[in-house]
TrEMBL record:
UniProt KW Oxidoreductase keyword: yes
Record's protein name: Nitroreductase family protein
GO terms of molecular function: oxidoreductase activity
Residue ranges occupied by any Nitroreductase domain in the UniProt entry: 36-205
Keyword vocabulary terms for this entry: Flavoprotein, FMN, Oxidoreductase
Source organism: Parasedimentitalea marina
Lineage: Bacteria, Pseudomonadati, Pseudomonadota, Alphaproteobacteria, Rhodobacterales
InterPro entries xrefs: Nitroreductase, Nitroreductase-like, Nitroreductase/BluB
One Pfam family in the UniProt entry: Nitroreductase
Length: 230
């Protein structure tokens, strides 16, 4: 956390420590991979409700992410109200129509074809929760004085990954949605100009006949994403 008063460095003992053997580490790493590879981006949601406590705990987990100077430059807005979700859908679809009608450019639209997306976003109504992630580009002390946050995109990106992982761990499916521009979310959700909306995360349970794009499950092999120097 950051405060206007001077805070001196003070070291404390590591509060949590995992003592695993090499074999246990290998097993744990593989088990996590086996879990996370079953995460899917889903657009088809049931109306089964999700307890607020689950959403709060997943966001609490996201809040443990590392950040530049520990400023924690993020804010999450969780929405379950149907009328509010519908307002977001209408505003998002308005921006999406501009995108798909040429604003994106031919190359971008071609890249999206195998994903099967368009300007119709029913999941913004159907998912029981929407979580809007904001990046705080700067903050304010209690007296209104402004201070800078550091490594904001990197910090918020890590926290967003924590959130998606926590939601998957809780047995939920998600979809990350990034209408462009998204400034309508600041006014709609009462967030200050210092914050930039990064994405809308739809959260819920998949329908029995939920589909995913085949191409979305084609992940690069390890030798294409890893270089080892040893």
């Amino acid at each position: 956390m950051f405060a206007k008063d001077h805070i001196e460095y003070e070291a404390v003992d590591l509060p949590d420590r995992a003592e695993l053997s090499d074999a246990e580490m290998v097993s744990a790493a593989r088990a996590f991979y086996d879990t996370i590879k079953r995460r899917h981006t889903v657009r088809d949601y049931t109306d089964r409700p999700v307890p607020r406590q689950v959403i709060e705990d997943c966001i609490r987990a996201a809040g443990t992410a590392p950040s530049g100077a520990n400023h924690q430059p993020w804010h999450f807005v969780a929405i379950s109200d149907p009328a509010f979700k519908h307002r977001i859908r209408l505003a998002a679809e308005e921006e999406e129509r501009k995108f798909y009608e040429g604003g994106a450019g031919d190359e971008w639209l071609k890249a999206l074809e195998p994903i099967g997306t368009n300007d119709d976003k029913p999941h913004l109504d159907q998912a029981p929760w929407l979580i809007v992630i904001f990046a705080q580009r700067w903050g304010h002390f209690d007296d209104g004085e402004r201070f800078k946050n550091y490594y904001v995109p990197e910090s918020v990106g890590i926290a967003s990954g924590f959130l998606l992982t926590a939601l998957h761990h809780a047995g939920l499916v998600t979809l990350t949605h990034t209408p462009n521009p998204m400034r309508f979310l600041n006014e709609m959700l009462g967030r200050p100009a210092s914050e930039k909306p990064i994405m809308i995360v739809a959260v819920g349970h998949p329908t029995k006949d939920a589909k995913v794009p085949k191409v979305a499950k084609m992940k690069k092999p390890l030798d294409e994403i890893l270089t080892v120097a040893e």
